[in-house]
Amino acid sequence: MQKSRKTARTSAATSALAMALAVVVAPAAAEGRLNLYNWGDYINPEVLQRFSEEFDVEVTLDTYGTNEEMLAKIQAGATGYDIVFPSVWMHDVMFNLGLLAKTGIGSHPDFKNIDQTFIRAKTDPQAEYCLPYAWGSVGIVYNKKVVDTPIKGWADLFAVAEAGKKVILLDDPRETIGIGHIMNGTSVNSVDEEEVVKATDYIIERIGDVSAFTYDSIPLVQSGDVAAAHWYVGANIFVSQMPDILEYVIPEEGATIYQEDMCVLESAPNRENAIKFLEFYLRPEIAALNVAQQMNGTPNIPALELIPEEIANNETIYPPQEVMERLQIFHDLGEDIRLYAREWRRLKTAAQ
Amino acid sequence: MMVRGTLKWRQAIALLGLLGGPTLFLGVFFLGPLVIMLIYSWLEPGLYGGVVWNFYHLNYGRIFGWANTRYEQFDPAYLRIFARSIWLALCTVGLSLAICYPAAFWISRQPEWRKNLFIFLITLPFFVSLIVRLFAWVLLLRPTGFINQALMGLGIVDQPLEMIFTGFAVVLGMVYIFIPFMFLPVYASVEKLDMAMVEASFDLGAGRWQTFRRVILPMTLPGVIGGSIIVFIPSLGNFIVPSLLGGAKVMMIGNLIEQQFLSARNWPFGAALSMVVMATVLVLLLVYVRQMTREDRAVAAAPEPTGDMR
Question: Could you say which of B50, B249, B264 has the minimum Cβ distance to residue A75?
Fold first, then answer.
């Protein structure tokens, strides 16, 4: 459901217009092929370059903006893609739909590099199918010049809003209703009707102070038009460019976490190369190369030694254990997703 | 008889050749999807998108009032969103007409080369991606944007105006996008207006207002109505402008439909909403066509010419 993993470039509207951008990396007269289908700006092009040169494979990259968009395209019969990057809950969905191929990546000798806590998909407890790829928190990015005291959590965010400054929330039913769950102390995966209604009410009670629901909030926070916005850990890229103005925090009351897994499709035309790519990505130096550009979390333990110090020491990217315990990940809700859709519509119509 | 028969046959072949292609195109790319949507709107939603092939009436029940289960609840909000979309679309039509109608008159009085230049200028924005142009409006309308800074610099306002993420921004964005669609049909009928008629009206003693109401307006009405329809229909279903300039707080029917197909994974309900939109538009169009043909018949006192060769 998260639209843009790294930058504001892939917005809701651009993905709606299906501006598919294909990148091709190929050495001269490559033998094999490998076709990736990934979120926009969610892999370091250098990783593809290195793989392409080492294995003499032509790598193409197509992008999507949401899990649903990717699933719809694969379900509609799009063939030719070898590897996709679903969120953990979508990994479960795709497994249940029989769309994923067994890779045996979990029994590869280098799989010992992977932190076991990141094998999160319920349908794939031995990592026989997919490789945990990257993760990060969903928190708050704010403009230090506009707010009077630093924002530490959701309560502060809404206090800033109540004081008349502008704040933006994500245009995402589960993330935004999730804030209500966190504040009410209920699970972000709750399917109890009363709890979901109460979580929605938490946001509705404060909706008059929310300026907008959008993913494209970074430029407005940078310029100070908006004091704070609900955004992804990737905001650190902008924080590192404007350290005097911007700040990203993981809310003290708790937050959500996202994680994507790297999966091979059952319909993959180049399954052998796809498995080679998964194995290639187990190497610590490759995972570290990706993190250096993406500024997000990797489950690869030895890679942590190789990443730039300012990323490894950034507690919003690699939070201490006690903060990690306050982060919740979304599960697939099956049919109950419609409960959230219903409440989301109630929330949106309350805005007017 | 033989000759007539062959001639008719040839005409039929020619007609088939001329209309066959477009008919096939419309059949495959317009009627086909329409029928799929119609069928889907009466089916049960699948767990992960798609449909389950069981007859299911609650999709319409949610909109019109008989659904009451855990997931499918009647809510008047759907009709309210629908009514607001119609209202915003009507505002868009009204404002773009108010801009294009006088402009069309002025441009039609210009020398030939200037006319062409202005028409070119009006279509010029099409050369730039819609998304880029809408983001430009975000930059213009925001509190530290150009418009607010200019107004404050001139001392007209002391505080930035709330423009971005409001209904006003949505209508402004849609008027901006759809002006060329309104201008071209209006201009086409204004251009054809015979000034001799206007002079005749003045000679016969009509005043300015009377001339406008009884002569100019009826003669340019086809362009005005054509332009209004072409602007009304896409405004009604628009979802990009409300999500970018309305900050997704101003929900229109298009956003609701998009949400059903993506995050809610409820294709049948999205299809049912689309059907309601389409039915409304069709009813409006039918009323218009009937009105037009009735007027045509009233004007054409003579019997219709027959196509027979004598």
Answer: B50
